[in-house]
Design goal:
The longest helix has 7 residues, at about 10-15. Strand 11 (about 145-150) and strand 12 form a beta hairpin. The chain has 2 helices and 22 strands. The two termini are about 15 Å apart. It has 2 domains: about 5-25 and about 215-280, no CATH class; about 30-210, Jelly Rolls, CATH 2.60.120. By secondary structure, it is mainly β. The strands form 5 sheets. The chain has a 6-stranded antiparallel beta sheet, with no helix packed on it. Strands 1-2-22-19-20 form a 5-stranded mixed beta sheet.
Length: about 280
Protein backbone atom coordinates (compact mmCIF):
# COMPACT_ATOMS: atom_id res chain seq x y z
CA UNK A 1 0.00 0.00 0.00
CA UNK A 2 1.51 3.34 -1.01
CA UNK A 3 0.41 5.95 1.45
CA UNK A 4 1.57 9.42 2.39
CA UNK A 5 0.63 10.41 5.94
CA UNK A 6 0.14 14.04 6.74
CA UNK A 7 3.17 15.54 8.49
CA UNK A 8 5.37 12.58 7.56
CA UNK A 9 4.26 9.91 9.95
CA UNK A 10 3.21 11.80 13.05
CA UNK A 11 0.12 9.77 13.90
CA UNK A 12 -1.07 12.40 16.36
CA UNK A 13 -1.43 14.82 13.48
CA UNK A 14 -3.29 12.19 11.49
CA UNK A 15 -5.89 11.47 14.11
CA UNK A 16 -6.25 15.07 15.26
CA UNK A 17 -6.89 16.33 11.75
CA UNK A 18 -8.21 13.14 10.18
CA UNK A 19 -5.85 13.32 7.24
CA UNK A 20 -4.45 10.72 4.88
CA UNK A 21 -3.72 10.43 1.17
CA UNK A 22 -3.62 7.48 -1.21
CA UNK A 23 -2.40 6.79 -4.71
CA UNK A 24 -4.35 3.53 -4.57
CA UNK A 25 -6.79 1.94 -2.12
CA UNK A 26 -6.29 -1.82 -1.76
CA UNK A 27 -7.93 -3.93 0.92
CA UNK A 28 -5.75 -4.05 4.04
CA UNK A 29 -6.07 -5.45 7.53
CA UNK A 30 -4.28 -8.15 9.45
CA UNK A 31 -5.42 -9.04 12.96
CA UNK A 32 -3.16 -10.21 15.77
CA UNK A 33 -5.10 -11.06 18.94
CA UNK A 34 -3.41 -11.55 22.31
CA UNK A 35 -5.00 -13.24 25.34
CA UNK A 36 -3.95 -12.36 28.89
CA UNK A 37 -4.59 -15.78 30.43
CA UNK A 38 -4.00 -18.73 28.14
CA UNK A 39 -2.67 -21.20 30.71
CA UNK A 40 -1.07 -19.24 33.54
CA UNK A 41 -2.24 -19.69 37.14
CA UNK A 42 0.25 -17.13 38.51
CA UNK A 43 -1.07 -13.80 39.73
CA UNK A 44 2.19 -11.96 39.05
CA UNK A 45 3.57 -13.69 35.94
CA UNK A 46 1.03 -13.57 33.15
CA UNK A 47 1.13 -15.37 29.82
CA UNK A 48 3.34 -13.49 27.35
CA UNK A 49 3.00 -11.05 25.74
CA UNK A 50 0.98 -9.64 28.70
CA UNK A 51 2.56 -8.38 31.93
CA UNK A 52 1.16 -7.06 35.19
CA UNK A 53 2.04 -3.49 36.26
CA UNK A 54 1.94 -3.53 40.08
CA UNK A 55 2.80 0.07 41.09
CA UNK A 56 2.38 -0.93 44.75
CA UNK A 57 -1.15 -2.31 44.31
CA UNK A 58 -2.53 -5.78 45.09
CA UNK A 59 -2.41 -8.44 42.41
CA UNK A 60 -5.16 -9.23 39.94
CA UNK A 61 -7.10 -12.45 40.57
CA UNK A 62 -7.78 -15.23 38.08
CA UNK A 63 -11.27 -15.52 36.66
CA UNK A 64 -13.17 -18.01 34.52
CA UNK A 65 -15.27 -15.61 32.41
CA UNK A 66 -13.99 -14.66 28.97
CA UNK A 67 -15.38 -12.42 26.27
CA UNK A 68 -17.67 -14.02 23.71
CA UNK A 69 -16.64 -11.56 20.98
CA UNK A 70 -15.91 -13.24 17.66
CA UNK A 71 -12.18 -13.96 17.56
CA UNK A 72 -9.76 -16.86 17.04
CA UNK A 73 -8.66 -16.87 20.69
CA UNK A 74 -11.63 -18.85 21.94
CA UNK A 75 -12.20 -21.36 24.71
CA UNK A 76 -10.58 -23.84 25.27
CA UNK A 77 -7.54 -21.99 23.86
CA UNK A 78 -7.54 -19.70 26.90
CA UNK A 79 -8.41 -20.85 30.40
CA UNK A 80 -9.94 -17.59 31.59
CA UNK A 81 -9.04 -13.99 32.28
CA UNK A 82 -7.61 -11.77 35.02
CA UNK A 83 -9.68 -9.29 37.02
CA UNK A 84 -9.26 -6.65 39.69
CA UNK A 85 -11.99 -5.06 41.78
CA UNK A 86 -11.96 -1.49 40.52
CA UNK A 87 -12.50 0.07 43.95
CA UNK A 88 -9.32 -1.54 45.36
CA UNK A 89 -6.99 -0.65 42.49
CA UNK A 90 -4.07 1.73 43.03
CA UNK A 91 -3.56 4.60 40.61
CA UNK A 92 -0.92 3.52 38.09
CA UNK A 93 -1.62 -0.20 38.52
CA UNK A 94 -2.71 -2.16 35.47
CA UNK A 95 -1.21 -4.24 32.71
CA UNK A 96 0.52 -4.02 29.37
CA UNK A 97 1.55 -6.15 26.45
CA UNK A 98 3.98 -6.36 23.56
CA UNK A 99 2.86 -6.86 19.98
CA UNK A 100 5.55 -9.49 19.45
CA UNK A 101 4.50 -10.26 15.87
CA UNK A 102 4.53 -6.61 14.81
CA UNK A 103 5.70 -5.23 11.49
CA UNK A 104 9.04 -3.45 11.73
CA UNK A 105 9.10 0.26 10.93
CA UNK A 106 12.14 1.61 9.10
CA UNK A 107 13.24 5.12 8.21
CA UNK A 108 10.36 6.89 6.50
CA UNK A 109 7.94 4.06 7.24
CA UNK A 110 4.63 4.26 9.06
CA UNK A 111 3.17 1.06 10.55
CA UNK A 112 -0.22 1.90 12.01
CA UNK A 113 -2.45 -0.34 14.12
CA UNK A 114 -5.97 0.01 15.43
CA UNK A 115 -5.94 -1.31 19.02
CA UNK A 116 -9.21 -2.88 20.20
CA UNK A 117 -10.21 -4.39 23.54
CA UNK A 118 -12.79 -6.95 24.61
CA UNK A 119 -13.65 -8.35 28.05
CA UNK A 120 -16.33 -10.44 29.80
CA UNK A 121 -19.59 -8.77 30.75
CA UNK A 122 -19.78 -10.45 34.20
CA UNK A 123 -19.71 -7.53 36.68
CA UNK A 124 -17.52 -5.50 34.33
CA UNK A 125 -16.96 -1.93 35.47
CA UNK A 126 -19.30 0.72 34.11
CA UNK A 127 -17.19 3.72 35.12
CA UNK A 128 -13.51 2.72 35.08
CA UNK A 129 -11.02 5.10 33.45
CA UNK A 130 -7.65 3.75 32.33
CA UNK A 131 -4.54 5.58 31.21
CA UNK A 132 -3.07 4.40 27.89
CA UNK A 133 0.51 4.97 26.82
CA UNK A 134 3.51 3.53 25.00
CA UNK A 135 7.24 3.77 25.58
CA UNK A 136 8.23 3.10 21.97
CA UNK A 137 5.27 4.09 19.77
CA UNK A 138 2.97 7.06 19.19
CA UNK A 139 -0.70 7.10 20.15
CA UNK A 140 -3.64 8.82 18.54
CA UNK A 141 -7.42 8.91 18.47
CA UNK A 142 -7.73 7.52 22.00
CA UNK A 143 -11.36 6.65 22.76
CA UNK A 144 -13.04 9.03 25.23
CA UNK A 145 -9.71 10.77 25.58
CA UNK A 146 -8.59 13.34 28.13
CA UNK A 147 -4.93 14.35 28.25
CA UNK A 148 -2.94 13.35 31.33
CA UNK A 149 0.76 14.10 31.71
CA UNK A 150 1.91 12.93 28.30
CA UNK A 151 -0.32 9.85 28.40
CA UNK A 152 -4.05 9.80 27.73
CA UNK A 153 -7.02 8.63 29.78
CA UNK A 154 -9.65 6.44 28.10
CA UNK A 155 -13.13 5.12 28.86
CA UNK A 156 -12.67 2.24 26.39
CA UNK A 157 -12.57 -0.38 29.19
CA UNK A 158 -16.07 0.39 30.44
CA UNK A 159 -18.59 -2.41 29.92
CA UNK A 160 -20.82 -0.34 27.65
CA UNK A 161 -18.09 -0.24 25.01
CA UNK A 162 -16.27 -3.58 25.12
CA UNK A 163 -18.17 -6.26 27.10
CA UNK A 164 -18.48 -9.27 24.77
CA UNK A 165 -17.74 -7.04 21.75
CA UNK A 166 -14.61 -5.52 20.27
CA UNK A 167 -14.31 -1.90 21.40
CA UNK A 168 -11.95 0.64 19.84
CA UNK A 169 -9.22 1.89 22.21
CA UNK A 170 -6.70 3.88 20.13
CA UNK A 171 -4.41 4.01 17.13
CA UNK A 172 -0.76 3.01 17.60
CA UNK A 173 2.09 3.71 15.19
CA UNK A 174 5.62 2.28 15.27
CA UNK A 175 8.54 4.63 15.52
CA UNK A 176 11.41 3.90 13.08
CA UNK A 177 13.33 0.77 14.09
CA UNK A 178 10.65 -0.55 16.47
CA UNK A 179 10.11 -4.30 16.11
CA UNK A 180 7.84 -4.97 19.10
CA UNK A 181 5.36 -2.19 19.95
CA UNK A 182 4.54 -1.81 23.65
CA UNK A 183 1.25 -0.54 25.04
CA UNK A 184 0.25 -0.12 28.70
CA UNK A 185 -3.11 0.43 30.42
CA UNK A 186 -3.03 1.89 33.95
CA UNK A 187 -5.82 2.57 36.41
CA UNK A 188 -6.93 6.18 36.93
CA UNK A 189 -10.38 6.07 38.54
CA UNK A 190 -13.61 4.11 38.87
CA UNK A 191 -15.21 2.30 41.77
CA UNK A 192 -17.76 0.05 40.12
CA UNK A 193 -17.34 -3.64 39.28
CA UNK A 194 -14.25 -5.29 37.83
CA UNK A 195 -11.38 -4.28 35.60
CA UNK A 196 -10.61 -7.27 33.36
CA UNK A 197 -7.61 -8.29 31.31
CA UNK A 198 -8.83 -10.64 28.57
CA UNK A 199 -8.03 -9.96 24.90
CA UNK A 200 -6.41 -7.11 22.97
CA UNK A 201 -6.47 -6.95 19.16
CA UNK A 202 -3.93 -5.24 16.89
CA UNK A 203 -5.53 -4.52 13.51
CA UNK A 204 -2.96 -3.51 10.88
CA UNK A 205 -4.11 -0.41 9.03
CA UNK A 206 -0.98 0.64 7.16
CA UNK A 207 2.55 -0.52 6.52
CA UNK A 208 4.03 1.87 4.01
CA UNK A 209 7.14 3.70 3.04
CA UNK A 210 6.93 7.42 2.42
CA UNK A 211 10.42 7.93 1.05
CA UNK A 212 9.59 6.11 -2.21
CA UNK A 213 6.31 7.83 -2.87
CA UNK A 214 5.49 9.99 -5.83
CA UNK A 215 1.77 10.03 -5.09
CA UNK A 216 -0.55 12.78 -3.94
CA UNK A 217 -0.02 14.06 -0.39
CA UNK A 218 -1.91 16.30 1.99
CA UNK A 219 0.19 19.35 2.80
CA UNK A 220 -1.93 21.42 5.17
CA UNK A 221 -5.31 21.87 6.83
CA UNK A 222 -6.12 25.52 7.46
CA UNK A 223 -9.63 26.20 8.71
CA UNK A 224 -12.03 24.81 6.11
CA UNK A 225 -9.34 24.28 3.46
CA UNK A 226 -7.61 20.90 3.04
CA UNK A 227 -4.61 21.40 0.75
CA UNK A 228 -2.81 18.72 -1.26
CA UNK A 229 0.04 18.47 -3.75
CA UNK A 230 1.86 15.92 -5.90
CA UNK A 231 0.44 13.07 -7.88
CA UNK A 232 0.40 12.54 -11.61
CA UNK A 233 -3.21 11.49 -12.07
CA UNK A 234 -5.95 13.21 -14.05
CA UNK A 235 -8.27 13.76 -11.08
CA UNK A 236 -8.10 13.98 -7.29
CA UNK A 237 -10.94 12.76 -5.08
CA UNK A 238 -11.71 13.89 -1.52
CA UNK A 239 -12.81 10.92 0.64
CA UNK A 240 -14.17 10.79 4.17
CA UNK A 241 -15.06 8.16 6.76
CA UNK A 242 -16.15 8.10 10.39
CA UNK A 243 -13.57 5.36 11.13
CA UNK A 244 -10.01 5.01 9.91
CA UNK A 245 -10.37 1.21 9.94
CA UNK A 246 -13.29 1.21 7.46
CA UNK A 247 -12.42 -0.59 4.22
CA UNK A 248 -10.81 2.12 2.14
CA UNK A 249 -12.87 1.38 -0.96
CA UNK A 250 -15.96 2.11 1.16
CA UNK A 251 -15.02 5.70 2.07
CA UNK A 252 -17.50 8.31 0.85
CA UNK A 253 -16.47 10.31 -2.22
CA UNK A 254 -17.10 13.95 -1.36
CA UNK A 255 -15.61 16.09 -4.13
CA UNK A 256 -13.34 15.93 -7.19
CA UNK A 257 -10.61 18.27 -8.46
CA UNK A 258 -8.59 18.09 -11.69
CA UNK A 259 -5.44 20.05 -10.77
CA UNK A 260 -2.49 19.67 -8.42
CA UNK A 261 -1.59 21.36 -6.17
CA UNK A 262 -5.12 22.12 -5.06
CA UNK A 263 -7.51 22.35 -2.13
CA UNK A 264 -10.85 20.97 -0.95
CA UNK A 265 -13.36 22.65 1.34
CA UNK A 266 -14.12 20.63 4.49
CA UNK A 267 -16.05 21.22 7.71
CA UNK A 268 -14.20 23.29 10.28
CA UNK A 269 -13.28 21.65 13.59
CA UNK A 270 -16.20 21.50 16.01
CA UNK A 271 -18.94 22.02 13.43
CA UNK A 272 -19.54 18.38 12.53
CA UNK A 273 -19.10 14.87 13.93
CA UNK A 274 -15.45 13.68 13.94
CA UNK A 275 -14.40 12.24 10.57
CA UNK A 276 -11.25 11.25 8.69
CA UNK A 277 -10.44 12.78 5.31
CA UNK A 278 -8.27 11.43 2.54
CA UNK A 279 -7.24 12.37 -0.97
CA UNK A 280 -6.98 9.76 -3.71
CA UNK A 281 -5.37 10.31 -7.11
CA UNK A 282 -6.96 8.51 -10.06
Amino acid sequence: MKTEWFNHGVIRALVALGLAAWSSIPALGQDHICAARVSSVSLSVWDPPFYWIANGGPAYATAQPTSTATNPVSTPYRVGSYFHTASTMVVGEGYGLVHNLGTTAGDGEHVVYEVDVTLPDFNASTNIVMNVGSTNCDLGGVFGATAAGGWTNTTAFQSAYCANVWGFACYLTNRPGVTQPHIDFKYVSGDDGRNYADCIRFHLLSACCSNVLTSVRITNCDGAALQYAGGSATRFVLLKSARLSTALDSWTRVATNFVTPGAFTISTVGTDAPVFYGVKSE
